[in-house]
Amino acid sequence: MNAKVEHEERRRQIAEALLRIADTQGLQSASMRAVAAEAGVSLRLVQYYFETKEGLLLDALARLGAQLQDRMARWIAAAGSPPTPRALVTAVLACILPTDAESRRIARTYTAYYALVLNDPEALAKHGTGQADLLESFLAEQLRAAQRDGGLSPARDPRITAAGLAALVNGLGQSVLGGQRDGEAALAILTHHLDELFDA
Amino acid sequence: MNAKVEHEERRRQIAEALLRIADTQGLQSASMRAVAAEAGVSLRLVQYYFETKEGLLLDALARLGAQLQDRMARWIAAAGSPPTPRALVTAVLACILPTDAESRRIARTYTAYYALVLNDPEALAKHGTGQADLLESFLAEQLRAAQRDGGLSPARDPRITAAGLAALVNGLGQSVLGGQRDGEAALAILTHHLDELFDA
DNA sequence: CATGCCGTGATACAGATGTACCATGCGAAT
DNA sequence: ATTCGCATGGTACATCTGTATCACGGCATG
Description:
Strand content of chain A: under 5%
CATH topology of the largest domain in chain A: Tetracycline Repressor, domain 2
Number of strands of chain A: 0
Number of domains of chain A: 2
GO molecular function (chains A, B): DNA-binding transcription factor activity; transcription cis-regulatory region binding
Pfam families (chains A, B): TetR_C_6, TetR_N
Oligomer: homodimer
Number of helices of chain A: 10
CATH superfamily of the largest domain in chain A: Tetracycline Repressor, domain 2
Structural class of chain A: mainly alpha
CATH architecture of the largest domain in chain A: Orthogonal Bundle
Radius of gyration of chain A: 19 Å
Order of helices and strands of chain A: HHHHHHHHHH
Shape of chain A: elongated
Organism (chains A, B): Kitasatospora cheerisanensis KCTC 2395
Protein name (chains A, B): TetR family transcriptional regulator
Largest interface: A-B, 44 and 44 residues
Keywords (chains A, B): DNA-binding, Repressor, Transcription, Transcription regulation
C-alpha cells in the first residue's frame, strides 16, 4: 500500500530533522516546534506521526544507531577481502572516531543523547549497554583471530584489550568534540597504539 | 568585613545545590526555581547572588573543576613520599575513574555540562581544553621521568602515550556511567594497561 | 449519493522558565 | 533621628513547551 510507505517516509523526514538539530544545537533545542520547522511541516504533523515527544526521541535514536551501523558496515567492507583481523579492528575503531563530517555528526548527536539518557535509568538499561557490548565482543573476537594468525602476542587478554581499545576511541572522540585536538591527531594516536599492540 | 564572607558562603551554597541537581537529575532539570528549592532559599536570592542563569552555571562549573583538582591533589598526596612517576600516573588516572561516590558524582556532573558546552563554541574555547591539556602534560612529564628512571621503555612516545591514557580513562568513565561495567572492572582494565605499559 | 476515516491545519491550554519589578526590614552612617 | 544601601521576599510578565481540541478537505467504501 502506498500510504504506509509515505508514512515511513514522513517519520524518517521528521526524525532526521530532530537529529540535525541535536547535532547542530543540542537536544535541549529540539522542541517539537523546532523539529517541525526544520522538517518543513506543521507542528500538528509531528504530533500526528509521533504521538509523544519521547516517541520521537526514541525513534530518532534508533535511526542514529542504524546510521552508525551502516557506516561501520561500509568501513568493514572497505577493509579488504578477505580482511585481516588487524584490518578489521583498525577499520571499526577508525570508523567511530570523528574524523569526517558524518562521523562527527554521529558522535555529536550520540553525545547529545548520552547526557539525556544518563538520568533516565530505564532508557539507559534498554539502549545503553547493547551496542557497546557488541562492539567489544567483536573486537575481542578479532583479537583472538589475530592471536591464532600470529599477528598478536598470545600474552594479551583479548577481552581486556578490546575493552581498552573501545574506551580509547570513545575518549579520543570526546577530546576531538571538545576541541582538544582534531580528528587526524586522534587517528594518529589510535594507529600509534594499534601499531604498538600488534607489533609487540 | 563579615558581609563579604557570607556572600561567598551563599554563592557556594547555591552553586552546590545546582551541582547536586545536575548530578542527580541532569542539567536540564536545574531551573532557577529548582536550584532555589534545593538550596533552601528563595528564587529572588538565586537571582541576587547570580545575576543570570549563565553566571550561575559558569560559577558552578568552576567549582566543579576545583573539586576535581582537590581530589587529584589528595590522591597524589596519598601516592607516597616521594612518589614514583608510575605511582603518580596511577593515582591521577585512578582518581578520575568513577569508582566511589565522589568521583561518580564529579564524572556525572561533568558529563551533564559536556553536552551543554558542546554547542556553545565560545564557552567551549574557555573551559574545554585547559584542564584536559594540563592533565596530559602532567602525564607526559611523569612518563618522561619514568623513562629516566628506567621504569618505562624509552621507545614510548610520552606525549602520545599520555594522550592515550587520558582518553582511556575518559572512555572507561563513560562506560561506567553508562552502566556497561562497574568502577572496579574499569579500574582493573586501567591497571592491566598500566602494567603492560610499565613492564614492557 | 452518503458516510466515515485519514491526513492536515490552526489554535487553545496549562504549566514551566528566565528575568524584572516593587516592597520591606534592618543596620550603619550622618 | 533620618537617610541610605544592602539583603530578602513576593509576584508579575513574556515566552516557550508539550499536548489536546476543533475544523476541514479528500477519497474510498457502502
